[in-house]
Design goal:
This protein is of the alpha/beta class and about 250 residues long. The protein is built from ten helices and seven strands. The protein is globular, with a radius of gyration of 18 Å.
């Protein structure tokens, strides 16, 4: 069964990705929708045109990951798309956020994403795509969002390396690096700095570009002029100098 597996499908960009794949990718026969909120997933499944499998799990749980691996073994899907969109971010200084919150961010944003890539790899179809949600926060260390930004740098680096390892076998990996996007993520993240509000993007548009970039085999997808400029600047100007500028704000 040609399958798309989508984590974080209960909300925001994961949900939008499920809708976009359902609308645009004809070859998909089944979508696996992953998240903790079952009702949301069932609602989404009812609105899609393909067969759906709702999988309620907490991706931070090692047992849940092992159970998911067993499900893969039992169903032996031909995975055409793996989308890792589950994640969250909490703003605040390292000393102000609890240790639990910071480790939970790393668990979902980095560990779960790595585990999903690893356990799905044996089932990836010959021409397949992995879409990993990183963030523009990956481009530069971010005081006040340190653990989240460092975790997303990991996702960007990991995805590009995985892409280099798998693309010859026909599996392309794209790291999606949006700036702020209007989703529940922003409600949970805490008060975002006012200059970031200027760059808030629409989830549908970010996802549309991410899917297009993935189909074109790009290893990084950045939506919008502002974030592309930011990406370029962080490649040219030493990070120490940019961080000084932020400190002076
Ligand atoms: N929105 C932004 O400004 C922004 C910017 C850059 C990058 N990103 C990244 O883009 C990705 C998608 O974010 P979004 O904006 O779509 O956020 P969102 O609307 O808050 O969605 C996050 C999704 O992650 C799932 N999730 C969280 N913890 C989970 C866990 N322990 N187990 C299983 N699922 C879990 C949630 O589902 P349940 O609660 O149902 O489990 C939800 O479906 C994230 O990786 C985020 O870091 C977001």
């Amino acid at each position: 069964m040609r399958t798309a597996i989508i984590t974080g499908a209960s909300s925001g960009m994961g949900r939008e990705m499920a809708l976009a794949i359902d609308q645009k990718i004809r070859q998909i026969e089944e979508l696996w929708l992953l998240g903790r909120r079952e009702e949301r997933l069932r609602e989404l499944a009812n609105s899609l045109s393909r067969k759906c499998r709702v999988i309620c799990l907490d991706l931070c749980s090692a047992t849940a990951i092992r159970d998911f691996e067993e499900l893969l073994k039992a169903k032996n899907p031909e995975i055409v798309f793996l989308v890792n969109a589950a994640g969250f971010g909490r703003m605040g200084r390292i000393s102000a956020l609890s240790l639990e919150e910071q480790l939970a961010m790393l668990d979902i944003n980095c560990r779960a994403l790595t585990a999903l890539c690893r356990i799905c790899l044996p089932y990836m179809a010959e021409k397949s795509r992995i879409i990993n949600f990183a963030s523009a926060a990956a481009f530069l260390p971010q005081p006040g969002f340190a653990v989240y930004a460092a975790g997303k740098s990991y996702v960007l680096s990991f995805s590009r390396a995985l892409n280099a390892e798998t693309r010859n076998a026909g599996c392309h990996v794209t790291a999606v690096c949006p700036g702020p996007v209007r989703t529940e993520f922003l409600d949970l993240a805490g008060k975002i700095p006012s200059y970031k509000r200027f760059f808030i993007a629409d989830a549908k548009k970010v996802v549309r570009k991410a899917l297009k970039d993935s189909l074109e085999g790009k290893d990084v997808s950045v939506y919008g002029l502002g974030m592309n400029l930011f990406y370029m600047i962080t490649k040219i100007i030493p990070h120490g100098a940019i961080l000084l500028l932020f400190r002076k704000r």
